[in-house]
Amino acid sequence: MAPIDDLAAEVVSALRSERFAGVVVIADGDRIVLDRAAGLADRAEGRPITASTRFATASGTKGFTALAVVSLIEEELLAFDTSVVEVTGTDLPHIDPAVTVEHLLSHTSGIGDYLDEDELDDVDDYVLDVPVQTLLGPEDYVPILNRHPQTSPPGARFVYNNSGFIVLALLIERVAGRSYHEEVAARVFEPAGLADTAFCRSDRLPADTALGYLTDGRTNIHHLPVIGTGDGGAYTTAPDLLRFWDAFLGGRIVGRDLVERMTVVANREDGGRGYGLGFWLGADERTVELEGMDAGVSLRTGADPGGGLRYVVLANNPTDTWPVASIIDRHLAS
């Protein structure tokens, strides 16, 4: 049995022993090795999750934001060394003038984080301190960002930072002259052929979308912004994520030279995990990954640029993705 088939068999065994609500897909090139959907997209209505169900992606959206920014760099409307304050002016006075676009993309900006995940004991406990329905785009976050001063010098260290990707979304809007959501759709979703990927309002979800559930059974409607922006919140499907990896790594969103720059280790988090520009690197430091976790959401997806492996794990709760992801991590590390 090939290693990827061994991986699929181990995942199947784990799914049999766990109560899983989500979708798992493992592919080897064009061959789908595993495609499983289980659980309920809407528990009250008894609507099942299917292979084409849409899920929220939480921080998986950061990869889409990064690609929209790098697309603007490719067009020379921004540069990796563009100073953030050159674009934002005096609107974000706490940001060090030395902070660049690349610092934001690599989580080395040192700016204050409006959602510091290291301070969260339980993701289900986090509730925004402003009404979620008022957060419709990056400009709406400016007063929130300004409550959090710079915490370390730019470039000094890697600290995972949600505010940085809100600021990147703000830069996209100000440089491109239209909304962040429109730019990501035009620069990422459309060239990749992601017909079922969009920034959906949580209070008006399409019928084929999984509701997000907290561990106590409530939905996450009160926990997250009503529509996502630069640091998280797009909705997608497993088939679209497979298409995304093919398009991204194939140079159909930005050129291959920029793909390479985004997908090599630029910095490391404490404990050693590698990060590029908007993307994590897997345990083998070759597989490129996106992941996200929020109230009612979990995601891990990745692809090996030089091999056939592509995988997607999506769940409409904060826990079910990680047992499968840990199996994949062991496979990559072996």
What does this structure look like?
The structure is a single chain. With 334 residues, the protein is α+β, with helices and mostly antiparallel strands. It contains ten helices and twelve strands. Strands 2-1-12-11-10-9 form a six-stranded antiparallel sheet, sandwiched between helices. A two-stranded antiparallel ribbon has the order 3-4. The longest helix has 15 residues, at 3-17. It is globular. The chain starts with a helix and ends with a helix.
Report how far apart the termini are: 16 Å
* Rg computed from alpha carbons, rounded to a whole number of angstroms: 19 Å
Q: How many DSSP H or I helices?
A: 10
Portion in helices: 25-40%
Biggest sheet architecture:
6 strands, antiparallel
Q: What's the rounded overall pLDDT mean?
A: 94
Q: Spans of 5+ residues with little confidence (pLDDT < 50)? A: none
The number of strands is 12
- Helix-strand category: alpha+beta
Strand content: 15-25%
Give the helices and strands, then pairings.
Layout: H1 3-17, E1 22-28, E2 31-38, E3 40-42, E4 47-48, E5 55-56, H2 61-74, H3 84-88, H4 101-105, H5 142-145, H6 162-176, H7 180-192, E6 235-236, H8 238-249, H9 256-262, E7 267-268, E8 274-275, E9 280-281, E10 288-294, E11 297-303, E12 309-315, H10 321-333
